[in-house]
Amino acid sequence: MSIKQHQHAHWSSRLAFILAATGSAVGLGNIWKFPYMVGESGGAAFVLVYLLCIALIGLPILVAEWLIGRRGQNNPANAMADLAKAAGKPKAWMLVGVSGILGAFLILSFYSVIGGWSLYYTLNSVTGAFSGQDADGIGELFNAMLASPGLLLAGHSVFMLLVIGIVARGVTKGLEGAVRTLMPALGILMVVLVGYGMTTGHFGEALAYLFNPNWSALSGETVLAALGHAFFTLSLGMGIMMAYGSYLGEEVNLLKTARTVVIMDTVIALGAGLAIFPIVFANGLDLASGPGLIFVTLPLAFGNMGAGIVLGLMFFLLLTFAALTSAISLLEPVVEFVEERTPLSRVASTLVAGIAAWALGIAALLSFNLWSDPVLFGLNVFDLLDKLTSKFMLPLTGLGVILFTAWQLDRHAVAKELGLSGAGETLWHAVTRFIAPIGVAVVFISSL
Ligand code: PFF
Ligand code: NA
């Protein structure tokens, strides 16, 4: 797989690895999902719980996934099975790997639909569709897209084709290069957009909204949403980070690397919030407008600022790239699994997995128009896929990962592998044996 080739490239393996892991982590979750979840959940209280979840639960699980992958040197399901066997534990731990792979498949199906929106908006910025529009005009553009199954299908199909094409070739050599230019470019653009937010006169309001909590707005439901998003945004509970870890050398410091990836992911998400909320307040837009939030706010800014066409084009291109690098990481473990369990070749496996995810994605995109009726638990297909993965599968798989690492593997060997001793070791064990699993369990049970 990709990272193995990357190690032979002329970057240090640590840098190549950070780039691939960051490419998976930074995506639609940061720029599309995080802001609208903040908006739906009432602001700062959600943000602070989210940050807590990232630090106390997300970071340790990220490290645990890499550790399992590095030791297993195999795909997530096999790695779990082998490590369990070596430690004399039940082989059933393998199910943690399997459920991760299934989750990746389900996420990919609806992730690609949003990737399609991003493609369509890239096109819209070139044609100047945002120029001079007011909030109503921009809203109309978005609603017209949602109302058109054909348009959504076209975007979803092109996006999935790109993903399939890249993965079928075994992930292009250009991927890490793309990520390496993408991150700084995204960072710079974010600064520009936050700068624009400052000119709206509503930046202070946005800051307060994001960081000054009103704790009464917090519910069990919100905490579960924050936890689920912590998993989603770091690509955890999907076997992905395990698969990436399996290409790691012993010399890489997992804790330090995890800190780097987590910081980049968090900075991009908060940057997106700081760019979007001033525009929401300045235009009296609906905070809880859900998945459409960035598509009805940012174009408003692009349509009414100097160089808006160029900046809009850059933004949606970058968003599409970020979505692609994450989607690739979603398809990869599914393909590996199909390839190993069936006689199919890599290309055939990619086609089978990709086409299956594409077909499921069609049900997801019809949720916005022809098939908006609830199918289960009062949710339509899109919401069902989103909630099922973020709120159930990711946290449960992550819980399995952390319990396995903390309680089934030799704790002293783990501490040694992470370069921990003394207080650091005690802290690591306290977090991974108790704080993180109990946190996940409590949030999970209280939300039921
Ligand atoms: N972490 C990606 C994002 O924030 O957009 C999305 C994602 C990728 C989720 C891979 C899950 C995953 F396994
Ligand atoms: Na992310």
Feature tags:
binds sodium ion; globular; 448 residues; single chain; mainly alpha; disordered N terminus; binds 4-fluoro-L-phenylalanine; Hydantoin permease
3D structure, described in words:
One of its GO terms (cellular component) is membrane. Keywords: Membrane, Symport, Transmembrane, Transmembrane helix, Transport. Its main location: membrane. This is Transporter. One of its GO terms (molecular function) is symporter activity. This protein is mainly α and 448 residues long. The protein starts with a helix and ends with a helix. The chain has helices at 2-8, 13-25, 28-41, 44-72, 76-86, 94-126, 135-147, 149-168, 174-199, 203-211, 220-233, 240-245, 254-282, 293-303, 308-341, 346-366, 381-408, 411-417, 422-447. The protein is built from 19 helices and no strands. It has one domain: Orthogonal Bundle (Hydantoin permease). Helices cover 78% and strands 0% of the residues. Helix 4 packs across helix 5 and helix 5 (76-86) runs antiparallel to helix 6. The longest helix is centred in the C-terminal third of the chain and has 34 residues, at 308-341. 4-fluoro-L-phenylalanine (PFF) is lined by residues 24-25, 27-30, 104, 107, 232-233, 235, 238, 240, 326, 329-330.
